[in-house]
Amino acid sequence: MWKSIARGILKLRLFWLTVLIIVTIVMGNFGTRLQLSYQPARVLPLSDSTQQHYEDFKQRFGIDGSVMIVGWQDKRWFDLPVYQSWYDMTEQVRKLPGVKDALSISRLYTIARQDTTWGIKQVVTQRPQTQQQVDSLQKKILDLPFYDGLLVNPETKSTLMAISLDEKTLNTKDRLGIVAAIRQQGDTFAKKTGITVHYSGLPSIRTEVSKRVAGELKLFTALAVAVTGLLVWLLFRSWKVVVLSLTVVLMGVCFAVGALVLFGYEMTVLTGLLPPLLIVIGIPNCVFLINKYNAELAEHGQKQRALENTIEEIGLASFLANVTTAIGFGVFYFTNSRLLVEFGLVAAVCVLAVYVICLLMVPIILSYLPVPKTQQGDSTEVSIWRGTLTHIDNWVHHKRPLVYGLIAVITVISALGLPLIRIEGFVVDDLPKNDPVYNDMRFFEAQFKGALPFEVTIDTGKPNGILAGTGSALYKIRAMERIIAQYPEFSKPRSLVDAIRFAYQSYRGGAPKYYVLPPALALRDMVAEAPIGVKSSPSSSLTRSYIDSSRQVARVSYQMADIGSIRMQEVLGKLQPRIDSLFRDTGYKVSLTGHSLVFLKSNDYLLGNLYESLGIAILLIALVGMVLFRSVPIILMSKLPCLIPLLVTAGIMGYTDIAFKPSTILIFSIAFGLSSDGTVYFLTSYRQQLQRGLAPSAAISAAIHETGVSLIYTALILAGGFSVFAASGFGGTAALGVLVATTVLMACLTNLILLPALLLSLKRYRV
Fold first, then answer.
1. Range with the poorest average pLDDT among 6-10, 320-324, 410-414
2. H or E, element range at 458
3. What's the gap between Cα 393 and its chain centre?
4. 614/717 Cα distance (integer angstroms)
5. What is the DSSP string of 519-570?
6. What's the average model confidence in pLDDT over 76-86?
7. pLDDT tens digits, residue range 526-566?
8. Please, which residues have CB within 8 angstroms of residue 463's CB and are 6 or more apart in sequence?
9. How many CB atoms lie under 10 A from the CB of residue 691?
10. 3 state SS of 199
């Protein structure tokens, strides 16, 4: 079959070349329509209970992460010039398109009661002109406990502006312009006053991360081209080979970006890695074909025969190797996580597409090029590698106990590092500690206990249940708030209870000591005077975000610190039973939710899927091997050279304190697929040598020398290519690059030394 394929490719070379050029142009044109994703990346499947609670919450109350915060700390916080500048900034921000409202110490509200009528009025009605006016405002503001810990921190003299963004523009490209305009206003305030301004909240964090994703796509694509191109030149010393190899993979990149558009996907933090990944992964396909072509020319010097033999002998092995790589990506499809499904599906399809492009382009272009004057097989560089392979062959045949002993020691040492691995994720964990986004988040954690949303919903199970009877639900909610207040990770709450406490303070004349939940009778009278949750009521603008339209479900909103998944589990492990106990006899359903909880739960979900996806990858790759080799012992034994590098990588993570998190969990399935490539190439060569009548020992020697140079070249290119990700500003992406590079280098050693040693020890089994 492969002989016919080879002849069909070369006979119709102009046709296939034209098809490839047209497909590349069409897919590249589609790729120009690729959009950056502005939606929060959903990792948990919709069937997960945590995700379901979050979806229910969004349906009732809208998106929880729609508030951007701008804050600062300075002892001049109520000095006239500073206050006036902050007032001006607040008014300018409020007028920006896409901004619903902005609350700050220059624009905040109080609840007023005149006779039997309740209403909302502004505390600051105009821009103050004297320090005396500002001092008066300061007293009024600090006498409103509702804002203590939310907008102001009197102890540290820090304050913030809470900017509510329109949900319709929050997940669109318009968010970039809105956030940029807010930052511009903040920079103007900073220049006027000399005060350092900090920005945070999910809209700001997501905007900065998405901008970095777009920037790193261009950076890594350029670096991948430069590094792999340089490595190919150093290994082949031929600019023609460099241009040919890069042309093939860049055609694959055009196919990838076009495929994303055709699948209806957008660029995310994962799919943004596809172009540089395909460049790095695609080059080895070219290396094997070109090495085989040069070896054939060195043997007999006939170009047509060399090209046909190259396609025939490398085509199947390369196909199976690319299938194993595609499986390493494709298993993410089984996670039911939208983020991983999109990445895995497109990556798997594009890996196979690059294989097809390479199988067609390389022989066709080589057929048009003249035969090289100096054969690669006679070059000094290859002679050096041949000498190395001779030593390896000697170790395999005569020093197998030493080989097994060294591998065993490495395996044991690596296994000891496994218990040291931390399973922990943070919302901004992938950013370096000196990044402005990270530092700004730490500012708000220190001054206001955090900037990440955390929500609690209380469903009474019946309409008007929150306000029914004597307000027992409200007293339960207040008791819950007292429990949560014992955990320093959470900010002060915002809820219907706190709005009522705010109203009761006004009801009793405005003294801060009356900022409490009123007795049952007073509560009943207040609710009767200002029907809570009714749109026509004056209080609706303050309360409707804390209670649904049927007044059945109430919401308590918190901001929290980025405490990580480990601490989050500890807190929830203690908090959840206490809340359950509080509401045990009420029949109410209390759910903890919010973007922060969903994100941190995603880390545990991905870890569980690591084992599942890796298991599926091992099974599928084993089945692929069975198609070719049809020997269960050989297939089982051949997994060791692929799994040991993964164990070494995991051990390195333990010893160097690289945690399991969403970005690093991807390493193992990808690396396993790449490691299996070398195994497939070597076993294919070994089988061909046996079919030629060689004894197992001689066949192993021949396979080492036939595939060794290509395995070394591809390992170096893969390692160098993945190493470019170390330049990433995201810690997880940098770790992925370094660890995958380490894995493929280790896999090269195990495939060239351990695999042939095992085959020789089990020579009674044939492939």
1. 320-324
2. strand 452-459
3. 42
4. 24
5. PHHHHHHHHHHS-TT-TTSTTHHHHTTTB-TTS-EEEEEEEE---HHHHHHH
6. 95
7. 766 655 544 444 444 456 678 888 889 999 999 888 888 88
8. 550, 551, 552
9. 11
10. strand
- As a three-state string, the secondary structure of 347-366 is HHHHHHHHHHHHHHHHHHHH
d(CA 68, CA 200): 6
- What pLDDT does residue 374 have? 54
Please tell me the number of Cα atoms within 13 Å of 330 on its side-chain side: 18
Measured from the Cβ of residue 531, the count of other Cβ atoms closer than 10 Å reads 17
Angle at the Cα of 146 from the Cα atoms of 144 and 149, rounded to 5 degrees: 105
The pLDDT assigned to 764 comes to 53
CA angle (341 as vertex; 336, 343 as ends), nearest 5 = 155
Q: Which helix (H) or strand (E) holds 454?
A: strand 452-459
Q: Looking at residue 336, what is its pLDDT?
A: 74
**Closest residue by Cα to residue 663 from 742, 599, 745, 593:** 599
pLDDT greater than 80 at residue 96:
yes
Going by C-alpha positions, the residue among 171, 230, 223, 189 that lies closest to residue 72 is 189
Q: Which residue has the tokens 């110490």?
A: 105
pLDDT at 537: 45
Residue holding tokens 């045990």?
A: 584
Q: Give the C-alpha separation, 375 to 487, whole Å.
A: 72
pLDDT at 746: 92
CA dist list (Å): 19 to 15, 27, 247? 6, 12, 15
Is the CA virtual torsion 454, 460, 465, 469 positive or negative? negative
List all residues 6 or more positions away from 472 whose beta carbon is below 8 Å from its beta carbon.
586
On the question of pLDDT at 263 being above 60, the answer is yes
Bridge-based pairing of strands 158-165 and 152-153 is antiparallel
Ramachandran quadrant class, 264 (left: phi over 0; alpha: psi -120 to 50; beta: rest): left
Question: Do residues 440 and 183 lie in contact, with contact meaning Cβ atoms separated by under 8 Å?
Answer: no
DSSP label at 579?
H
- What six digits make up the tokens of 546? 């804390």
Q: How far apart are CA 279 and CA 327, in angstroms?
A: 18
Residues composing the chain: 767
Residue 114's beta-bridge partner residues? Answer: 117
Q: Judge whether 225 and 218 are in contact, CB under 8 Å.
A: no
Model pLDDT, residue 378: 45
Q: DSSP string of 175-193?
A: HHHHHHHHHHHHHHHHHHH
Q: Exposure pattern of 139-156 as b/e (b: 16+ CB <10 Å)? A: eebeebbbbbbbbbbeee
**Hey, how many other C-beta atoms are within 10 angstroms of the C-beta on 287?**
26
pLDDT score for 535: 44
| Other Cβ atoms closer than 10 A to 426 | 22
Residue in 705, 642, 746, 162 with CA at minimum distance from that of residue 394: 705
Strand ranges in 52-171 using DSSP code E only, listed in sequence order: 67-73, 99-103, 109-114, 117-122, 152-153, 158-165
The pLDDT confidence band at residue 260, using thresholds 50, 70 and 90, is very high
3-class SS at 660? strand
- So what's the pLDDT on residue 429? 65
Q: How far apart are CA 257 and CA 253, in angstroms?
A: 6
Q: Which tokens in the block code for residue 587? A: 């029949």
How would residue 451 be classed by pLDDT, with cut points 50, 70 and 90? confident
| Angstrom distance (rounded) from CA 590 to CA 583 | 8
**Digit-coded pLDDT (tens) for 213-229:** 777 778 888 888 898 88
Cβ pair 279, 721 in contact under 8 A: yes
Assign 156 a pLDDT band (cuts: 50, 70, 90).
very high
